[in-house]
Amino acid sequence: MYKNPLSEDLDFIIKKLEKDIYKLKNENIFITGGTGFFGKWFLETLLYANEKLDLNIHIGILSRNPERFKKLYPHLNDEKFITFYKGDIRDFKFPEEKFSYIIHGASASAEGWFRGDSQISRFNIITDGTKRILDFAKNSKIKKFLYMSSGKVYGTHPIFYDKIPENYCGNLCLDDPNAALSIGKKSAEFLTLQYSKEYNFNVAIARGFAFVGPYLQLNLHYAIGNFIRDAINNKSIIIKGDGTPIRSYLYAADAIIWFLKILLNSKNMRIYNVGSEKDYTIKEIAEIVSKSVSPKVDIIIKKSKIDDNVDKYIPSVEKIKSELNVDEYTDIYTLIMKTIRFYKERG
Q1: Which end of the chain has the lower number of beta carbons within 10 A, N or C?
Q2: How far is CA 215 from the centre of its chain?
Q3: Could you report the per-residue pLDDT of 106-137, keeping only the tens digit for each?
C-alpha cells in the first residue's frame, strides 16, 4: 500500500488553511505548470484534501508530455479527479470543461534555462503563454486567476532596500543574462492586470523568490539543490563563487499555504511577494547542508571575494503576512533535513 512521504507536510497544509480549503469543495481548477516543482505540490495537496476531507476537487493539468509524467508519478495520476490536457502553453486547445479557478505556473522550463535556450524563446514562452491562458480565462467565468510570477521582476536587489517590497518598480537591464525572465514576467504581470480590467475577472499575482523542498530538481543551477545532491552522495559541496551572496529559502509546504491563501482570499489585482525574509550567505547554507548529513562533508569555495559589492535577493513579506495571516513555519535547518530525507528515501 502506498504511503505518502509528504503526509506530515500535507496534514500541516490542510490544518493551516483551515476553513479556506472548503472553498474548493466541488470546484474545478485548471493548472499550467502542473507537472513542475510547485505543480506536483499543488497536486499532492489537492488530492490529499479530497482523500481526507471529501472535497471532490477536480483538477485539469496542461502538460507537454502527460504520459511521461504519469509513468514517473503514478500516485499523482488519479483519473477520478485529474484530467490531463496535452499541449503547449502558447497554443493549447481550450478545454470544453468550465473551471472556477486557474493557477498559471507555466514558464520557460528549468531545463531550458540550464541548457541555455535563447532569450527570445524564453521570453516568448512566458508572454505568449500568459496571453493564451488569459484568453482562456476571460471566457471561463472564473472566480480567480492566480499568476505565479517571480521576484526576478525587480532586477538586481537595490542597495537602499534591506528587503524588496512589492511597490519597488524594479531595476531591469536589457543586457542582463536573466532579462528574458525578468522582463518576460513583468510583461506577463502587465497582461494579467490589463485582462482583469478589460474583461472583468479577478486576478492575483504571486512573486516567488527561492524555495526548497521535495521535488526540487537537484541537478540544475540551483545552488542549494546542488549542495543537497552532493551531500546525499557523500561528495564535497562545491561553491562556484566566493560564498558571500545572500539568499533566503521558503519551504515548499509553507509556499503552498501562501499560494492558496492568495488564490482564495486576496482582493482583486493584489500582488504579493512569496519567500523568506530570513537571510543567509551561500557559505552558511552550504555549512547547514553539510552538517545535516552524516558523516559531514567538506566544503570547497572556488573563488575569493574581489570587491565590496553585495549580491542579495531577499523579499519583504510583511504585506502578505499582515493581509492574509500567513507565516514562515519551517526554519532553514528543518526544510533542509526534510528535503534530504525525501531524496534519501526515494533512493
Answers
A1: N
A2: 11
A3: 987 666 666 678 999 999 999 999 999 999 99
